[in-house]
């Protein structure tokens, strides 16, 4: 009996769909709508209209809650949507207007989105989409993920044999995210894995969600830089080291793996807090010299970062005098560490001291002064680490085996970056 | 359904069944008649009805209209709750008090059942009441935020259409998200 009623009613509902009222806006349909409303007594439909609602209330809510709506959802076409709007008698979340459901999903934190993705197939399709994850990715990982990490992620995917086939194409997924974070320093990748959806439950490998989860669960070691390596050991103050990092969700800190140099083993450090991490400031490998583009703009008082490396463990032999030739670079790429040290330029040159007193001479001496003195204020005056001299015309690398080598220079423009270094300033002056 | 969720409906209905009790005594305010899909008549003050962008544009398009406004997509119960909410919001518009407003919104939401909340969303969406929609979406998100998959299915009345293998794969993939969820 119940089944009979059900079948009858359902056919009513289906029959009524095309007749049912359009949603109020646009109000163009108002007249038709109202006339329909008022003239309903002439028709059997009036009776059916109220009957329909009652039936919907009874059957759609209580007896056939979701089977139909899931079916509708999988069709999920625009045309279907207006029909859905008409049947608000029995609502499920999947019947919510696109926008409203989208709004709920947008407000969910990452773990909530993951749970929702496990509810049913149609919600899964929605919950894995990049636009929902972009915000979370940027919010949690944007500060520490840069182009190098992206390349590493691509490699990580490839090494897990996810890469069934490759294609040249438009940046998407994680790529798109990074183009937001790093708008200028970005080039189209050569390899872009296809979103492989052989299995409907498997996550598109190049989705932002999959990257987020890999980071969040510590499955992915990514390259980034760590300030004050080994937590402020005197020799590492005001420095920033390249490292591979791995997130530990239980402690909300990172494990850092510093690349080996010389005969030293890989150094690791655990419990590194977020504050000591940053995405590499330039997209230059720690084995390469950063090309300094700011040399001619350096002014007294500027804040800069400079690459620095030492070679105690691995003597250069013939190359112990700074030459800057190619042979040196080759050796570095295997054995040397690079670190970036912050420096405050106080006096650009002897000539430049004039500049402070007499601004009219500024431009003349600016052109003529090629020697730039970099002072590292964290070291006590007289310390061999306190200052170094570079030539702004042809600086590539300056230094010697005893004091280390100073490489590429990057001028800091953003107050945010400068104050970050300042926060790391040691409480006492270093010898 | 709990009695607490029924009571607001009843009180709202009562005020509607005795129309314009205060118009004789107080200054006359224009009333607008709304009709739900289940043929319930709601008389609301114009200021409240103008909170509904959909109704507002109806009257902007035909200012002289005195007809009943049919709301074919809206049933009585969620509509009465939406009206209740908007009535309060008007008061806050007249006397802005963010703390009180927050307090009221929180109370309004906590006393609603899951179903009430989900039912109100399409109504708020259809009537284009942006503030309410924001509040509701956030409330729903808060209620399911740290819950298990089973809880969410139950919350929305959704059937699981994954195969056992798919479900197992999902659990492996998202093990992280399955940890530390609240008790259902």
TrEMBL record, chain A:
Keyword Amino-acid biosynthesis: no
UniProt KW keywords: Membrane, Transmembrane, Transmembrane helix
Superkingdom of the source species: Eukaryota
Domain F-box positions: 90-136
SUPFAM superfamilies on file: F-box domain (SSF81383)
PROSITE patterns: FBOX (PS50181)
The keyword Amino-acid biosynthesis appears for this protein: no
Signal peptide: none
Sequence intervals crossing the membrane: 45-64, 314-332, 338-357
Name the UniProt record assigns to this protein: F-box domain-containing protein
Organism whose genome encodes this protein: Salix dunnii
Automatic annotation (TrEMBL), chain B:
One Pfam family linked to the record: Skp1_POZ
Family to which this protein belongs: Belongs to the SKP1 family.
Role of this protein: Involved in ubiquitination and subsequent proteasomal degradation of target proteins. Together with CUL1, RBX1 and a F-box protein, it forms a SCF E3 ubiquitin ligase complex. The functional specificity of this complex depends on the type of F-box protein. In the SCF complex, it serves as an adapter that links the F-box protein to CUL1.
Keywords noted in UniProt: Ubl conjugation pathway
Organism: Salix dunnii
Pathway in which this enzyme or protein is active: Protein modification; protein ubiquitination
GO annotation (BP), single: jasmonic acid mediated signaling pathway
Residue ranges occupied by any SKP1 component dimerisation domain in the UniProt entry: 130-177
Name under which the protein is recorded: SKP1-like protein
Entry keyword Phosphoprotein: no
